Amino acid sequence: MAITERVPPETRLDLALLHARMLDIVEAAGSVALEDFVPGGETRAEVQYKDGHSPVTSADLAVDAFLAREFAAITDIAYHSEERPQSWRGATETAFVVDPIDGTRNFISGGDVWCVVVGIVEAGRSVAGVIHIPARGITLSAYRGGGVFLGRKRLGARKPENQIATATGPKSSIEHLSRLLGYPLRPQAAIPALAHRLIAPVLGEVDVALSRPGGHDWDIAAAQAILAESGGLLLDIEGNIPHLALAGEKHPALVALPTGFAEKIRPLLLTSGA
What we know:
Order of helices and strands: HEEHEEHEEEEEEHEHEHEEH
CATH architecture of the largest domain: 2-Layer Sandwich
Strand order of the largest sheet: 3-4-5-6-7-8-9
Helix content: 25-40%
Number of helices: 7
Number of strands: 14
Distance between the termini: 50 Å
Shape: globular
Largest sheet: 7 strands, mixed
């Protein structure tokens, strides 16, 4: 039985309504993952390895099955998941874009930064996103025109800092951005789950977040919506806004910029030739 009522057909893209339903479903999916999570210890889930030696656990698959079932029960929007290669068919329709557990290695070892990630993509851009961090009890979400929510509480606009001071991500990327800014950024602790890392500026954990090349649509779709609604921006390292084609391709290195700095830093990226 679905945990939420079906969205009426005439309101299938009512983002406020979908956002409310997504929150309930994604947080329930987090509870599914927690059944196999051991804080500070090895997961109870079965661990296997995909091509490229990327791990996938029985918990990833259980969360994926749960999300697919619950979303199908409320709407006919397509479902695109990391764990379903057959869904990587290109952005021909509006779709949920899902990473059942982002940061699987962190989940396996009992870390607390892994997350359940769901975005809604339309015409190559994310229009809604939910990132739930079950081990920390944190849910950050947003939808186009609706703002950013921590749990069920809408966040007010953050006052921009005087300058970016701290960064998380690869050392080489932090050094590159430091050169563009003309002063050194202070590296902060790594956040291995990419979706969580990219929203760290919105959570106030760090000023700017960067990634290596290789992120996929399911890693970044939710973060793109959350950053946009917060007044920030998700860009590739050359200053371009990522296009989400839902075809399984990899993105170049990325930078998540906080409120007040996107339009200042984007020209530096566009002209850096990085």
